[in-house]
Amino acid sequence: MGFNVGLKAKCKRCGQEVPVDELTVDIVYEMAVCAACVKERKLKEKQQRQAVANPETVVLDEKKASPKPAGWDGEDEYLERAARLKAKEVVKAKRIDDQNVLYACKCTARFKYNTKTEHPGRCPFCGAAIGKFVIV
Ligand SMILES: [Zn+2]
Ligand SMILES: [Zn+2]
Questions:
Q1: Which one of 54, 55, 98, 134 is separated from 108 by 20 to 30 angstroms, measured CA to CA?
Q2: d(Cα 115, Cα 106) in Å, to the nearest integer?
Q3: How many whole angstroms from 7 Cα to the centroid of ligand 1?
Q4: Which ligand approaches the C-alpha of residue 26 most closely?
Q5: Residue pair 133/124 in contact by the 8 Å Cβ criterion
Q6: Distance 33 CA to ligand 1 centre (A)
């Protein structure tokens, strides 16, 4: 410490002459600057952080406060309703020939179904009864 007493050097940023041991190589400026410059930089960064952080916080809070949870519920309800409607939907079957169709079960299995003999009576994969279907 005592070694540097009295020695002065110029801050590379503001040009102010300061005691040498007040100069620090700042990681952002990447040069020897005075304590005041470092303080100024940190203050600016803090302000910038706050300026950036605050709108975000406000937006987040608004989102939380907004009727989004209700919207989510609505969406869930809608999806549930859609799923229920889909379950009630008539199964589609593709005509293969005058007797057979390709029946698509709710379990996503597809198999040949004979419309004359009504065979198989159940889905061979999940056992669900053959429901109403439309031949497409
Ligand atoms: Zn300076
Ligand atoms: Zn099935």
A1: 98
A2: 18
A3: 16
A4: 1
A5: no
A6: 5
Span from the CA of 110 to the centroid of ligand 2 (angstroms) = 8
On the question of pLDDT at 49 being above 70, the answer is yes
Please tell me the least confidently modeled range out of 45-54, 62-71, 98-107: 62-71
Q: What are phi and psi of 31, to 5 degrees?
A: -160, 170
Q: Which of 30, 27, 35 is nearest to 11 (CA)?
A: 35
Per the document, the length of the chain is 136
Per-residue pLDDT tens over the stretch 73-93 = 667 777 777 776 665 667 789
Amino acid identity at 58:
V
Q: Tell me how far the alpha carbon of residue 2 lies from the centroid of ligand 1, in angstroms.
A: 22
Rounded distance from Cα 126 to ligand 2 centre (Å): 4
Residue ranges per structural domain of the chain: 2-65, 84-135
Q: What is the pLDDT of residue 64?
A: 53
Q: pTM of this prediction?
A: 0.36
